[in-house]
Amino acid sequence: MDKQILERILENAEVAPGLDILDISGGQLLAGILAGNPKSVTAVNLPKETALAYAAEPRVRGIQADWEDGRLDGCFDRIVLYGALPKDTSIKRLLRRLAGLLKDDGRLSIAWDPAKAQEMPPAQELVKLFEPHFHVEIMVANRQLCQVSGVKRDPLAQVHCGVTHTHGGLTHTHTHGDIAHEHAPEPGATPIEELLVLMRYLVSHNDAHAQEVAELASQLQAAGKDVAYDEIMDAVSDFDMVNAKLDAILAQLTVEEF
Questions:
Q1: Which of 107, 112, 133 is nearest to 9 (CA)?
Q2: Per-residue model confidence as pLDDT tens digits over 87-136
Q3: Rounded to whole angstroms, how far apart are CA atoms 200 and 183?
Q4: CA proximity to 29, closest of 80, 95, 99
Q5: Average pLDDT, integer, range 30-55
Q6: Per-residue confidence band for 68, with pLDDT thresholds at 50, 70 and 90
Q7: Which tens digits make up the pLDDT trace of 156-210?
Q8: Which residues of 80-107 are buried (b: 16+ CB within 10 A; e: fewer)?
Q9: Which pairing describes strands 165-167 and 20-24: parallel, antiparallel, or unpaired?
Q10: Which of the two residues, 29 and 204, has the higher pLDDT score?
Q11: pTM higher than 0.85 for the full model?
Q12: Is the torsion defined by CA of 134, 139, 143, 144 positive or negative?
């Protein structure tokens, strides 16, 4: 790999000293990662000769595992993935899985050579797929390199008990059966101000309940109903993408003058 490309990938991934890093690059990024003095590197599916070359390196833990495999575990500051994804990979499920392996404020970077990984989605499309789980800060798309890098989002923590609760400072009440609820803008608010209040309520309410659905769906997985679990989580990811778009519109409207 070209040295400048390697350096740019690792810079965009914010690989820094003292971090725990998951390397999913088949060894292509390993030398550069180690040069950054990490605390540890878990390297997935290293070629035999690469594994032998780093066998005496105490910071490197090599494992043979699929990204869906339970052997791929840990809690990382950075995950760097380079190269084409395995055939028929569900990118939504992959991103959800990798988000679960990151520490709070951890960063995921996915990079590839567009000439060698033509089956990868366009970088702009991958950004949209990142959005439910990551705040994307970097996107590169040129003839030499494509890369998307983002920080893990903090899910909204809400307590639901079927009684009054709040999201984003907007108090409302409802029961999960008849969906009765209430919200109110400030007295004398203009129509656009009422719209902004309603949109804030909608975004925060949707985020919280999507998280609740995801948490409850884990019971299906525990019961061995993996297909149903995956379908629900894919639907939640789709919903999160729509909600992220609504949130972006809200942010734009908030800064505009009417």
A1: 112
A2: 777 888 889 889 989 998 999 999 999 988 778 888 989 998 898 889 99
A3: 11
A4: 80
A5: 93
A6: low
A7: 433 333 333 444 444 444 444 444 455 555 666 677 777 777 777 776 667 667 6
A8: bbbbebeeeeebbebbbebbebbeeebb
A9: unpaired
A10: 29
A11: no
A12: negative
Instruction: For the domain covering 3-152, report its CATH number.
Output: 3.40.50.150
Q: Kindly report the three-state secondary structure assignment for every residue of 131-170.
A: CCCEEEEEEEECCCCEEEEEEECCCCCCCCCCCCEEECCE
Strands 40-44 and 60-63, bridge-based pairing: parallel
CA 237 to chain centre: 10
Number of residues written out for the chain: 258
Buried b (16+ CB within 10 A) or exposed e, 193-229: eeebbebbbbbbbbbbbbbeebeebeebeeeeeeeeb
In single-letter form, the type of residue at position 22 comes to L
Q: CB–CB of 87/114 below 8 Å? A: no
Q: Which residues contact 55 (CB under 8 A, 6 or more apart)?
A: none
User: For the chain, which residues make up each domain, given as ranges?
Assistant: 3-152, 165-255
First to last CA, the chain: 52
